[in-house]
Please model this.
Amino acid sequence: ESDTASEISFQFNRHKKTPSIGSHSSDMASVSSVSGSVLSVYSGDFGSVDAQGTVEFALDYDEKNREFQVHVSQCKDLAVVDEKKGRSDPYVKTYLLPDKARMGKRKTSVKKKTVNPIYNEVLRYKIEKMVLLIQKLNLSVWHNDPLGRNSFLGEIEVDLASWDWSNRKLHWYPLKPRSFSAVNGVDHRGVMNLSIKYVPPGSLGKMCPKNPPSGEVHIWVKDVKDLLQLRPSGVDSFVKCYVLPDTSKKSYQKTRVIKRDTNPVFNHTIVYDGFHTEDLKDACVELTVWDHEKLTNHFLGGIRLGLGTGLSYGISVDWMDSTQEEVAFWQEMMSAANEWIEGLLPLRSL
Model:
């Protein structure tokens, strides 16, 4: 939920290789072992329980402290998760949409063995009122499982732009099944305009001074359209790039920051060497867009270019999850050596 490689699920130890001038080395063939994994912030088990019951809460904005407050009172008649024991261990969780990773989640305590939990807790967000009014509140109820396989019990989504802020009283609201916007964070995160090219080893001929001894992948990040507007002034965005499974500093590249623009033009080219043709089926180019702030950067969306097989060098990895559009883009590059392949790809949560 901050400027880290939190969407990257595996890190690999590799043999060191001296990078060439003007590029970052990514010697993919020297992968040796898996060293760890990190779950995505968007992971979760939504369970198979039908949503039912109601939740009582109230909303308020403290002008003095510039704080949004969600007073969660109680729930009634929630679904039973463990039918054998006739129990649920519910808690309430909130996000501010469209970008739930930006503001983070808030949650109540867990009430055990009850379908009628009483909380009387206040969940707080430090946020400017004018920014709050372009958000939606997603409030959901979950069963807490000791092994982390939490089950979804129901939710409600509130458009804060149309909320009556003079209404500070507690009210009951019916819980609904999971909505598309809650699962994906947003319906639309923007579109990246880019070109990619693969230069096979020695393919430019002996007389060419720039003929690479090993293969190269060229990535030309042109621009991004329709980014999420997290602030009234727009968004200060930049693009990060890794070639997975390599998450070392040699793999990491980024563009400059484009300020106050939801349609930033980067026109930035990234070159990775050390690519053998056979590495293309096991590697994945991850491009992510971030909003830049002083204390921490916020994830806006990304794409992963690869074959989407779920495997990398024979190891099962969850980052090899390219969509059909991303796979087709990568395959076209593989089949057209030394040619720029252009594409418009939608950003997504990773």
